Automatic annotation (TrEMBL):
UniProt cross-references to InterPro entries, sorted A to Z: DUF4390
UniProt protein name: DUF4390 domain-containing protein
One Pfam family it belongs to: DUF4390
Length: 186
């Protein structure tokens, strides 16, 4: 009885799953400032986005990339049942238009669009968070220690469906800062 090459498929799949799935930490948080203006804590931050070779190639071939920034203000010592006084996710899409040779950024919250001549200029603009209102001090219990937790990453779920399995299994797609935290004292 002659077997086709299909018996190799489960073995190849298992080998791919056994590869180490390391995170590429090409995104870094450079600067975070928490300031209180008009009875609201505001965030100023600088995130350095460096794309992997795979993400860079996909972007330059017309695949839009979505970058998400997650923010949480929570008690340092809190029970799992206690809600966070502030949580939000910022979403931004970057896309390259070959016809105009421009990089376009779309703010997922407002729909605002900006065009840039270079990828570096677009990524630099994406990394600037300025005067983002977070939480009012009246929502924070006096005497409690709070922290701001921040993470930025490439949203693999927003990639085109045929590219998602490669992104989940490939090393160059897991672009994240990981969670970082800063104290916030009311």
């Amino acid at each position: 009885m002659k077997r086709g090459p299909y018996w190799l498929l489960p073995i190849l799949l298992m080998l791919m799953l056994m590869l180490p799935l390391t995170q590429a930490t090409a995104f870094t948080i450079k600067d975070v400032q928490i300031i209180q203006i008009d009875n609201v804590y505001q965030l100023n931050a600088r995130i350095d986005y460096q794309l992997s070779e795979q993400a860079h190639e996909a972007l330059n071939n017309g695949v839009p990339l979505t970058l998400k920034v997650q923010l949480l203000v929570e008690k340092v010592w809190r029970g799992f049942w206690e809600p966070s006084p502030f949580t939000t996710t910022l979403s931004f899409q970057i896309r390259y238009h070959a016809l105009t040779e421009l990089y376009r950024i779309v703010d997922g919250q407002t729909g605002d669009e900006q065009n840039f001549v270079t990828q570096d200029a677009a990524l630099h603009a994406l990394g600037e968070i300025t005067n983002l209102p977070m939480v009012s001090p009246v929502k924070l219990a006096p005497g409690e220690a709070y922290q701001l937790r921040l993470r930025a990453d490439l949203d693999i779920e927003s990639l085109p469906l045929p590219l998602q399995p490669l992104a989940y299994l490939g090393r160059g797609w897991k672009l994240t800062t990981g969670w970082s935290q800063w104290p916030l004292q009311p």
